[in-house]
Amino acid sequence: MTDSPKRYLIAAGVENYRHLSNMDLPLVPAELARMSGALVQLGYKRVPARLTRNPTKRDFVAKLPNHLEKIREESSVMLVFYFTGHGHFDGDRHYLLLSDSKPDDLDGTALPVEELARILVKKRRFEQSLIILDVCYAGRGNDDIAAVFQRLKGGFSAYLGTGAFLLASARSWEQASRGTFSDAFARVILNQEGQWGGKTQQFLYPDTIVGAVNSLLPRPSQQAVLTALDVTDHCRLFPNRNYDATIPAGLDLESQRSRDLAEHWIPRAHGTELSSRTSYFTGRRQALREIVSWLTSKDPDDTLRVVTGAPGAG
Length: 314
What we know:
By secondary structure, the protein is an alpha/beta fold. The protein has two domains: 6-229, 3-Layer(aba) Sandwich (Rossmann fold); 261-314, no CATH class. Helix content is 37%, strand content 14%. The chain is built from nine helices and nine strands. It has helices spanning 28-41, 57-70, 106-109, 113-123, 138-156, 180-190, 206-216, 253-270, 284-296; strands at 6-13, 45-46, 77-84, 87-89, 94-96, 111-112, 128-134, 164-168, 225-229. A six-stranded mixed sheet has the order 2-1-3-7-8-9, with helices on both faces. Strands 4-5-6 form a three-stranded antiparallel sheet. Strand 1, helix 1 (28-41) and strand 2 (45-46) form a beta-alpha-beta unit. The mean pLDDT is 85.
């Protein structure tokens, strides 16, 4: 297993529906841009895809395998597949509604999620994969995909790699609020404030991500669901952008903060580089002595004291 897997993203969504009245989703382009932008910052390369926006079923089924074929020869690949749009459960199967889907002919014009699973599983081996469904009743889609994986893993076990993860933006009985999941997910995986994983954890854990995402979603009406399939190694899908390889393993949080103080904040407060012992803060000790003497004097004067300095003096 390589330490530096190649990371690919396939993202698609449907904004406009030809045969569904008043069902267009104007936020889909923003969702695609938000999710793609966040994952690209984690090192994923977006596979150029004409099926990105408003694909028909024919285009989707024909072109998705071709895009997978483009990365077929790569070794140790991490794949994220993301779809946003309408989802529908008819009591038997969960469907992704595409731009030409007709409500009276779902089998002919919509994409059963189990068919998506077969395309992804049978086509090639991924070291690890993540399928994200940002649609209504997405949890039902997780169930359908998991069932296909279980049926196929005997003949295609080599294709499952070290784990497949399914992430639904809503539970099987819930509708998905538009834009909320993608906003929460992007915010969590970018981890700009370092809330999750600290600096010693190289990858963010999927359960941590889902818990954090759910804390940002509208409870109790929508909660994301994670399903893990045949996981035999730790999840490496989400690099921690705050990871610092120079911090010794096992260093507790208080020690990390002391290290940050000594190696980051104090040198910058001195206006020097880390390796330098020089301090450009001249005259401060004398000023401090005078102030302390004034404050502790038994017979202080009533004069107001003001400390001033040139611009940039700190």
